[in-house]
Amino acid sequence: MIQDKTKWYVAGLHFECAECGGCCSGPGEGYIWVTRPEIEIITDFLKMTVGQFRQKYLKRVGLRMTIIEHQTTKDCIFLQAGAGGKQCMIYSVRPSQCRSWPFWPNNLAGPSVWNKTAQNCPGINRGRLYSFEEIEEIKRIKKWWQDPKQTDDCSKE
Question: Does the pLDDT of residue 148 top 80, yes or no?
């Protein structure tokens, strides 16, 4: 039996960041995975040592590191109240996980999952159309700091 490998989003998906901070917020606890190179980039940005950064902002989960969240709100520790609402304090150097939102594999599992995610993200199904190829590229890029096209958020293009 031949199985159809065509992904449901082959015609593309609409997304435009509403800058609401919802993808960085609780109420549920999550993980904000960060790699060693990303840690170094963020520490340079914050003008801290890697040791200071690890002690203040990271926790180990298994073999990986995650950015901590506010204890009560479960918001990312770098999501802070700003002039127009919540803002990421490390936006220009945020990890790959943050850059690839909402095109995460679990969000792309099917149209019902995508539309359920849209209930909590006002940017999904609005704004710019991302082609299938663009979505696949966003999912594939993990070392954004080595790709000049990835220095900006996919949602800001």
Answer: no
- Type of residue at 34: V
Is 4 within a domain? Answer: no
Residue 3 within any structural domain of the chain: no
- Indicate the number of domains in the chain: 1
Residue 61 lies in a domain: yes
Residue 5 placed within a domain: no
Give the structural domain span for 113.
13-156
36-46 vs 50-57: helix axis angle to the nearest 10?
100
pLDDT at 157 over 50: no
